[in-house]
Amino acid sequence: MNIRYEKEDKQLIVEITEEIDHHIAEKLRRKVDDEITRHMPRKTIFDFSRVTFMDSAGIGMIIGRYKMMRLIGGSLEITNISATVRRILEMSGINKIIPMEDKKEVG
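^ that's the sequence the OP posted. Answer follows.
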């Protein structure tokens, strides 16, 4: 996972570089929460370009970060989603509350 903060745009960009299962979701949760608390970004962007698998733990991790960003007055966005992961996100209904963009240049 690579995380960078763009001060000018107040964006936190989280490039997830592995499949998201229970163990990885917990690691992501802790790290992203720490970075959100540290930087207080206006927007957090999850770049899913390298994510080929995600289970329900990943959905929970996303929803938790969405709620955290709303609490601080920010927003969450997911970019570069594979067809498989997009299907999972759409079945969960996340696409109705969190913007999902394809092929977006982040950074």
